Structure prediction request, 878 residues.
Amino acid sequence: METKRTAVEIKNLMAYLGEEVIVKGFVESIRDHKKVIFMILRDADAKVQVIIWKNTTDEVLLEQVKKITTESTIKVCGKLTSNPFVKLGACEIIPSKIEVLSLANSPLPIDNTASLQDRLNWRFLDLRKPENLLIFKIQTALEHSMRETFMAEDFIEIHSPKLIGAASESGAELFSVKYFDTIAYLAQSPQFYKQMAMAAGFQKVFEIGPVFRANPSFTSRHDTEFTSVDFEFSWIESHEEVMAFEERWIQKMMIDAKNKFGDEIQNTFGVEIQIPTLPFPRIHMRDALKIVAETGYVAPKEYEGELDPEGEKIVFDYVKNTFNHEFMFVTGYPKKIRAFYHMLEDNGETTKSFDLLYKGMEITTGAQREHRVEILEKQAEAKGISLKSIDFYLDFFRYGVPPHGGLGFGLTRFLMLLIGLRNVREVTYVYRGPNRLRP
Amino acid sequence: METKRTAVEIKNLMAYLGEEVIVKGFVESIRDHKKVIFMILRDADAKVQVIIWKNTTDEVLLEQVKKITTESTIKVCGKLTSNPFVKLGACEIIPSKIEVLSLANSPLPIDNTASLQDRLNWRFLDLRKPENLLIFKIQTALEHSMRETFMAEDFIEIHSPKLIGAASESGAELFSVKYFDTIAYLAQSPQFYKQMAMAAGFQKVFEIGPVFRANPSFTSRHDTEFTSVDFEFSWIESHEEVMAFEERWIQKMMIDAKNKFGDEIQNTFGVEIQIPTLPFPRIHMRDALKIVAETGYVAPKEYEGELDPEGEKIVFDYVKNTFNHEFMFVTGYPKKIRAFYHMLEDNGETTKSFDLLYKGMEITTGAQREHRVEILEKQAEAKGISLKSIDFYLDFFRYGVPPHGGLGFGLTRFLMLLIGLRNVREVTYVYRGPNRLRP
Prediction:
């Protein structure tokens, strides 16, 4: 009875109304009534009802159907018939043959009441929820949109090494790797290597890849491995050019995501994507601190001269109320809290750098980089970094290098904020934390 | 004297003929003649001549020009004038002001006679050669083309964890990482995690990311870290579907690369890209071995029943001569030389798997995966793999899973072969080998 026809994706079924079809999918539910058994079959995009009439279906098939468990995968051959009473597409399949591709154990180890820990333990089952599949469809669309901008503007894609011989920043939070007879480290960011591309004359580069932080904290916004989006470009006059690129790059990303998934995001997460106007609001640190001070809030001592997370929220609320905008660039960061490679402003105290906050949370740090090697060396030494440990990096600036700047963008954080979730674990395909290496 | 105009990319200069322009670039060469100094300025896409007449240029500017070294970066303000005798675009810039952005030390540490080791030591200088920049422009185009296919066919992009708690294959060639109070490993491939996406119902996924191999060999085709392209999709009937996808995916990639860079590749590397016809030739292992045997060549003992690199070349030559084709799928690999998760053919001996060879070198291994957990367990045990060590992986197959297959594709190898190079070091942005962690 096998037809020669190849299987049809469920979303394309309607073209075959009245015909014999083959469909494959997960059995989402089985309802066994007196006269009839209903099964809902699900693939990645759509669902369809399969109806088995007990009085007209042959014994063998009926017995087979009774053994099927929910979440099993099956292949159904049958006739696709119109039925206006069926909510799902007003059609259903009357099967002539069913093949069980994979029988699911029953019961499933988690249900809808499972804790976050159990859900992460059984991540592959957790991901079957439609809202989780949607999250990764959105992520895919965001990444494609950002790459379209990069391609349209002649950026070169790089894959920088994750195994490195020396720390790119402070040396804290570095994972060490046994590397034959020596020790390597895992890159915390592609910073040095995207700057190397500038010294190589690549002019504009981007990278989307993993970065690693040996951070022992368990907060809802930290993980030990995440996907970072980095870009860097040459011949700039100031960090303002990096900000100007980022804001239109994000705007396009959000327009594309809204066009493709706006309704689904609204229905699933209750969030209407607000397309940001250009330019994004910009606020200098001194003004941001004034706004915080005026509320009477006093940040913990270690945050003197900068914004702590609570301060970021206060300033974000101010900006949101004043400008009706969910994004905010903060500039004027003092050098003591920025990396040694950020270029200083003429005052010698503040940096040509910025953070971008979205819905009150930091998603980007960017800057014009210091490309004058004598100044760069001084700035490294002032931070207590041994020049010897970064000699290969300093070399990039000794044989002609364009002025340049760029940023790092946390894909996971952005995605989380976009759809209104509050934990990076929810939007990470397979989360990694201090206690979590499995699955 | 600063004009308000922003800098122009050199490739766009011609629109400004007769006007004051600002350009920025590397000083590729300086020729100091009796009456005139010529400088060639280079950015990532084009070059332009700057001409300094000694009798009409002001003293300060002239003195400044004399101090400029090759490979310094400069900003030039001046008049773009037509000159039919100038090969480069028949125009030149007469500067009114030059700003040195970064003065290059002289001499450069490497020149055109440098050894491969020295070139890798000074990779950022080596990458300034136009042929090296071209390599990464081609790589960017290839990746964009492959993603376009993935997007058109509704694949989901995943970023699977590189820090893993258990080996995904044999446990050999694994790097270990000190992970807080325990040990983690670096993923050798996203194999288990892309299969997890199938169990999660993601249906079609791809990933482009780093993989790590603690392989101590120094051959021209091995490295300890490289960029792997992986995809996997569900509901297949056999590995033939994976092969059919791959061949049209590669064909599009090569058409796109040829359209964009065909002439440059021809001029730079002397290679004319041959667009492969579909389907690619397929050859079963038993026939491949016959072809090798007929030449009288005997492979080393450890390769019994399969092709060694020399055998691959022999079969490739045969296929190339017979089919005039640079690609060749080899099928019918015996189970003893394939991973435990490859599905067996009905004979119980050979696998539903394939390699793809391009110009005689393996660039892909792919297969239909065994999704029936009882068989999968038996196959793992037959390879001496403890079921306990892969319990989290086996769970993927216990709660309903679609039949699926996929492959891994070596981007670096493909790129190398496409342009006719013979060493992965040449086409890797920053190469990593047993003795190389820098830059």
About this structure: The radius of gyration of chain B is 27 Å. Chain B has a mean pLDDT of 94. Chain B has twelve helices and 16 strands.
